[in-house]
Specification:
Layout: H1 6-18, H2 29-33, E1 44-47, E2 49-50, E3 53-54, H3 55-64, E4 72-76, H4 81-87, E5 92-95, H5 100-111
Length: 112
């Protein structure tokens, strides 16, 4: 997960961990790019507006890797799903503020 808002990042980490997911959370693009790339996630969860880049760009980067079939969910308070689909091809989208159970349903649908 890449989310610059510390409160949202912590809440999502606690919530998803309690639901049985292992969460690697990053506050910006730079931290994300330093991640251990030998760990293969089941899902990427990207905020759109980040202090040093964009979740849209991260989505495009992930989707451009031909061997990477990991789904991407985009989160945004500002960009709408139609705009997002024009800029990248996420597997799903959730607008902020969001209900945690709605997000969990989207994650389960994509990762099963």
């Amino acid at each position: 997960m890449v989310e610059d808002n510390q409160d949202i990042r912590e809440i999502l980490t606690i919530f998803l961990t309690a639901e049985g997911y292992r969460v690697l959370a990053f506050g910006n693009v730079k931290e994300f790019k330093k991640r251990n790339t030998e760990i293969f996630p089941d899902l990427y969860l990207f905020d759109v507006m980040l202090p040093d880049g964009s979740g849209i760009d991260l989505c495009n980067e992930i989707k451009s890797q031909s061997n990477n079939k990991v789904p991407v969910i985009i989160m945004s308070a500002n960009v709408k799903i139609d705009q997002t689909r024009k800029l990248c091809m996420p597997d799903d989208y959730i607008s902020k503020p969001f209900d945690l159970n709605d997000l969990l349903q989207k994650i389960r649908k994509i990762t099963l």
